[in-house]
Amino acid sequence: MKLVLSQKIHATGKIIPVKRAAELAATLARDLTMHSIPTNSHQLNFRNHLLLPAVLFVLVIALIERFHIDMALGQWLFHLEGGNENWPLRGHWLTETVIHQGGRYFVILLGLVIIGLMVASIKKVNLRPYRKGLLFLFISVLSSVTIVRLGKSLTHLDCPWHLKIFGGSADYYSLFSGKIAADSPGQCFPAGHSSSGYAWVALYFFALAYAQKYRWIGLGIGLAIGMMFGIAQQLRGAHFLSHDVWSLGISWFIAAGFYIVIFRQPKLATTTMEAHLSDIDPV
Fold first, then answer.
1. Contact 194, 224 (CB under 8 A)
2. What span, in angstroms and rounded, lies between the C-alpha atoms of 205 and 261?
3. To which H or E segment does residue 73 belong?
4. pLDDT of 231-278, one tens digit each?
5. Between 160 and which of 30, 64, 81, 237 could a Cys-Cys bridge form, CB atoms 3.0 to 4.6 Å apart?
6. Which of 194, 207, 206 is nearest to 251 (CA)?
7. What average pLDDT does this structure show over 172-184?
8. Rounded to an integer, what distance in angstroms lies between the CA atom of residue 110 and that of residue 156?
9. Tens digit of pLDDT for each residue in 208-220?
10. Are the C-beta atoms of 144 and 198 separated by less than 8 Å?
11. Beta bridge partners of 9
């Protein structure tokens, strides 16, 4: 009996032979791998990921400004340390050497690890599905730190240790006072060091794309690193609480924005391989 392959597949209104259909299926599979689209990625929820965080951010900043929490907390920490004309913990080995300097090298190391994994994904097949996520992490973290650094050079807000009340020579102005001195040497807002920790809240969105159940762990890692850096800097007299809150807010919304752009599902991903093959009709 002569076996004749007569099955055909319909696509875009055209009848395509089985051999050609197999080629199209292989191309589709290759493209899906190339684009590294996580099959379990979740779309960003506007209310949970943008609206509620924005409301919470505005509320916290408003409370800090209304009740002068920056200055109250700063004075409490200053006197708690036994400060008189300077911040006793400014040059302490733990806050300065370990957390400040060591923390900076730690974040640089994390960045190098991300770059190394991206390079390794060129040859490592098991890393290719994570290529897009690794790129997202790198761009998001780098952008957060860069935007905060740019803000520091534009706002000219002083550090607590610059202020007269803490043994310095500058007067205190808040961000919303409208009396920021343009010639001030201060470049302390937002908080740069804590931003290099808070930038890793991007891990929440990385997990949201690949393994949703781990997203809170990712968020916890970013918050823990950022809080450790931020508290250490407040103890040194380098920043006020609001400086850290702004750095966290900037990092979160930058990560959310890049998640929307990078993990937006293209048309290619909306049609699965099964959907294509289900159109096969025997003749």
1. no
2. 12
3. helix 69-80
4. 999 999 999 999 999 999 999 999 999 999 999 865 444 444 444 444
5. 237
6. 194
7. 75
8. 30
9. 999 999 999 999 9
10. yes
11. 16, 280
- Rounded Cα gap, residues 149 and 214, in angstroms: 30
Structure tokens that stand for 248 in this block: 């966290």
Beta strands in 64-140 (DSSP E): none
CA-based nearest residue to 255, from 180, 184, 192, 203:
203
Rounded Cα distance between 263 and 208, Å, is 10
Contact status, residue 218 vs residue 207, Cβ threshold 8 Å = yes
Strand partners, 263: none
In order of 88, 152, 160, 161, 182, the CA distances from 169 in angstroms are 17, 19, 10, 9, 16
Task: Look up residue 271 and give its amino acid.
Answer: T
Beta bridge partners of 141: none
Q: What is the pTM of this model?
A: 0.81
Compute and round to an integer the Cα radius of gyration of the chain. 26
Residue 160 CA from chain centroid, whole number: 27
| Tokens describing residue 144 | 């957060």
Beta strands in 38-132 (DSSP E): none
